[in-house]
Every structure is written in structure tokens, then in C-alpha cells.
Input
Amino acid sequence: MGNSNSSLYLSARLDKLRNTQNADGGWAFYARKTNSWVEPTVFAALALHGQPEAQRAWELLRGWQLASGGWRPTGDVPGANWTTALAVLLGVKVAGQADGQVAKGIEWLRNNAVDGAWAWRRGSLPAAEPTALGILALRSAGIAHSAKDAEGFLLTDKLTPETCGPALVGLQGSSQIRGLAPLAVRWAEETCSPLTRAWIQIGLRVNGIDVAESLETPLSPNLAVVALEALAAQDGNHGLLRTEAA
Amino acid sequence: MNRREFIPLAAAGLLTGYAGFRGGRQSVPRREARSAVTLRKISSYQDDLAATLLEGLQGSGLNVVGKKVLLKPNLAGFTADDFTNTHVAIVAAAFAAFQELGAAEVLIGDAPALHRDTYALAEAAGYRDRIPNFDDVFVDLNGDDVSPMEGLSGAEIYLPSTALRADLVVSIAKMKTDSTFGAALSMTNLFGLIPGSVYGWANEKAHGLGTPKVAAELTRIFRRSFAIVDGVWGMEGDGPVGGTAKSAGVIAMGADLVAVDATCCRVMGMDPSDIEYLKLAADRQGVLEETRIEQRGEAIRNVQTTFKTATLRTA
Output
């Protein structure tokens, strides 16, 4: 268990999330906005996993799945995009991979991979973050996804502080993770982005690499960042993102 | 279908949505029109920028009394340098000037294409320190509520509600050469109104939707707009983030984004008719020809300085 400062850090974030859940069960990116979105909703629900708020969030997302199996990113936008991977991830954790809707989402992910990678949306080029999340979602469901292509894609000289965290999560167990860790730690220390720091911390933790906490970080107005920081905390639910290597 | 085949399909769907939009700003026949562009010499960000902008805005005949104004800066990198982001001094001065002019609401918002943490970008650029009540007036347009723009074919484009609701969108761009477009000015700054929450970030916004046609369409959709280009310090070479500092010592202003950008190109030693998005927008969204632009303030020749061009990236 962490120390009291660590506990305060985590509880402040979980309280913020509990207090900002929308009536529909989802979360907006910002408390003063009204529309719930898949991305902050999934991160918040994972941070609050096992609590009623997470179940309500999943019930909302159930209603946002399209006939194709993909997920709309928010209730009013009709096309599926990369956040389908996040919806599948939450579905696996709350309902299990045998759930019919989760299974359809997994099929959508398989059908929309191009050379083992994913794009932000159909019609665009593959990108690091959607690819990392796609791998994470499939592996969470116990589905092997060859990391061979994705490794080359994610661990190139184009790796940036912002893509490093998702890459560490997506490529858990890769032989290259240990070599990447010192750079990741440095980026986490140097970045001025709480979002980047939280992702790298999660990425290191799920690979079994200890990482210093940033307990002085003030609460971000961005609820997705708040949720990721809660997941990244020493006693946070980052273990939900741990998968078996391919 | 391979990766290259995906892109035109996506762009076509987006443009179909724009083409049918009927809820936008009034259409003005432009072929015979003339436009005014104001150039002001500014030697440093410590100058009295609020007075300069106020004078330029008043001279343009802009009436914002009781209106909702959205200031849209260019947040491109985690840095407080003078040449990557729209300088905080310009944004703070514009914020004060529009308040002085009687706007009912002045907000600042951006949906950066290259980085996801918009607040951290704004903080790194000094916005949080220098702009009063920043958290109350800043909107991360990548996480905003969105609204659809209906198209005749049923295709839709989703844009931030804050931008669509504004009576006036002020594109406060940085004067840059650009690896994709040749020049990045007030029109391309409107790419920062495309929400990443729907369309994604990085390569998607920069190279997927980032086409000259989309720049022209965004200028049409946000017709009720005004341009302020920060050329006190600009970027030459491989912009929008890989170039180097270049001082032009000038601010350009005007209600016609095409005319303002064309004038900026001339200031930078470039021919605006070489810039694809300006050619597409000419005579539709604004005026390109120098003879039809009423130059106010400084003459172009007095502020002209040649920017090193960018190495253009091939699609």
C-alpha cells in the first residue's frame, strides 16, 4: 500500500470522477461540458472499476455500439473510431469477452486492422495510440495479436513522449521494453504534460517497472487526465491494463 | 483497400458535408469586392499590443458589441519560445481589445493537431500565467461538445459547438512557412477547429484532413471571422514545428482571411498564387490579387523580409 500522500492523491482523483459523472452514466472531457464521450468514460470507469459508477458507464456504452460492432465516440456522432478499442476494453473488464456486444466489438477491431495497426478512424493512416489501444483491447480479451508489425510501428525513432506510454502498454512483454524504460522514465520526469506522464507511469507499471509518483500535480480540468492519473497511481487500477504477452 | 486508398474517401465524405451546409454565415459575392488588410510594425512583444490591435480592429469597422467572440490561437508545441505558438502577448492583447470593444463574451480555444494535452500546451506557452481567469475563458476544442453540419448527401462534419456558436471566430495565427502547405497562416490555423475527439490527432489532422480543400472549406464555414497574424516573430523553414525563428516585426489584420494570408505571403517574400489553398479560396472566400487589397498601415515593402521556404512534403 502507498503512503498517506499517495492515498490522498488517488482519493482526490476518484472523488473528482464520482462528482462529475453525468446523469447518463458517462463522463465528458470537462465537467462544464454536457456530452459524455467514450474516452473519458472508459478511463473513469476503469479507475472506479468494481464500483456502481463503472457498471453505469458500461450500460451507457452498450447503447452506443453500431451495427458494425464499432463504437461511436459519443452518443451523437454516428461513425466508429479508435475509441472502439476502449469500449471493448471496458466491456471485457465489466461484462467479459463472452458478452455478445463485446464479441462484436472484438470482431470490428480485427476487421479494421491494417497490417496489424489501427488508425484514428477508417480512412486515415495508422497511428501509434490507436494501435497500442487496439492491441491492448484484444490481449485483454485473451486474443493473441502479433506484436511483430506493431513493434516496428510503435518503437521507431518516431516514438515521442506522448506515444511512449500507450506503446509500453500495447507492447507488454516485448523484449524491447527494458531497453526503452530509461528513456520513458526520463520523459515522465521531464514532460510538462500530466497526460503524457500518467500514460508513461501506467506503461511502466504494467511492465513491472517501478516509477516515482508525482503527488504534487494539481487536478487537471480534463477528466480523462484525472482518470488516467488515478489509474497510474501506486494503488490505482493500472493492473486492469496488464495483459499476457503475445 | 490499402492505406492510400482510405484517404481520398475520408476527405470526400468530409467535403460533402461542408458543401451542403446551410446554417453558416451569409454568402457575399466576392468577384468585384475589395478587401482591407492592416499591417502594423511591432518591434517586440513588450510593445503596447493592446492599443495596436484595438486601433486595427476599430479601423476595420468590426462591431462586436454584445457578440460572442472566440479567439483561436495556434498552439503547436510545448514551448514558451517566440516562434512556435501564437505569442501569449498577442492573445492577451486581443482578449483585452475585444473586451474593450464591448463583446459580450470572449473565449479562447484551440484543438491542437499535434499534441493531445491542450491545457499543458497552453500552460507551456504562458497562457495560464498571462491571461486573467484563464481556466474560465479557455476551451479545449478537442474535448468540446460537438454539433453536426448537415450536408445535402447526408454526410456530416462535426465541429466544436463553441466555435459554431460564436458570432465571430478570430484566427490568431503565427506567420510560418509550412512543409505541407507552403505557408501556414490564418486559414490553415482553422484546422485547429477540427475536434480530435472525433477525427483523431497527429497524422490524421495534419495529413488526412489537412488538405488545401479543407482549409478553403473551413474558411467558408467560418465566414464570420477575422484574422490576426502574429509575425513579430515567425517561423521559417520546415514549419509548422520544425523550422527556425524569423522576425518580420509585423502584425497583419483583416476580416478577409484570404487577403490577410495573401498579404502575409507577400511580406514573407512568397507568391500567394503558389499556395494551393489560397488559389482555391480566391474569389470564393476572399481576395487574392494585390490590386484588390487596400493596404492600411505599413506598406508591404516596408516590412517585407524573405522567409526561407519549407521543404514540401509529398503526399
Summary: Chain A has a mean pLDDT of 93.
